[in-house]
């Protein structure tokens, strides 16, 4: 699992780096006005920065499923996406005034949080006691 997570980190890290460096030309492939192009470029760069975390967290959280522990990744996803990402997106977008950029930041933060939580929980090893 650690090897697969590392390889996924390398691959999606390269994809994320490509998104950061080439965000303008990539977004330019799609129709839209200059305001949409500017937002899309910034959004793609923010998401690209979160890709290495997303890559690692995806593999680690999926390893629980492979071990027969479906409860742990369900709870991690519930916390990281429903109870963390959505309120954070609202907080950043509305009260803090970041608008749509706040929503994109919340997505990157939630994927990064999932990666950290998944690694911490996986290292505890409680998943090893699950009966399939």
Sheet having the most strands: none
Structural class: mainly alpha
Approximate shape? flat
Please state the CA-atom Rg, rounded to the nearest Å.
17 Å
Order of helices and strands: HHHHH
First-residue to last-residue Cα separation: 19 Å
Number of domains: 1
Quick structural summary:
This protein has 132 residues and is mainly alpha-helical. Helices cover 80% and strands 0% of the residues. It is built from five helices and no strands.
Name a few traits of the molecule.
132 residues; 80% helix; mainly alpha; 0% strand; 5 helices
Description:
Helix content is 80%, strand content 0%. The protein has 132 residues and is mainly alpha-helical. The chain has one domain.
């Amino acid at each position: 699992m650690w090897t697969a997570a590392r390889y996924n980190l390398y691959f999606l890290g390269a994809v994320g780096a490509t998104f950061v460096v080439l965000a303008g030309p990539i977004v330019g492939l799609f129709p839209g006005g200059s305001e949409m192009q500017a937002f899309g470029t910034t959004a793609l760069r923010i998401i690209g920065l979160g890709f290495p975390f997303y890559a690692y967290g995806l593999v680690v959280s999926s390893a629980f499923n492979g071990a027969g522990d479906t409860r742990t990744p369900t709870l991690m996803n519930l916390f990281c996406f429903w109870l963390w990402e959505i309120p954070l997106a609202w907080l950043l977008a509305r009260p803090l005034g970041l608008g749509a950029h706040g929503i994109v930041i919340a997505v990157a933060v939630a994927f990064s949080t999932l990666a950290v939580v998944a690694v911490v929980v996986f290292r505890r090893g409680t998943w090893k006691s699950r009966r399939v």
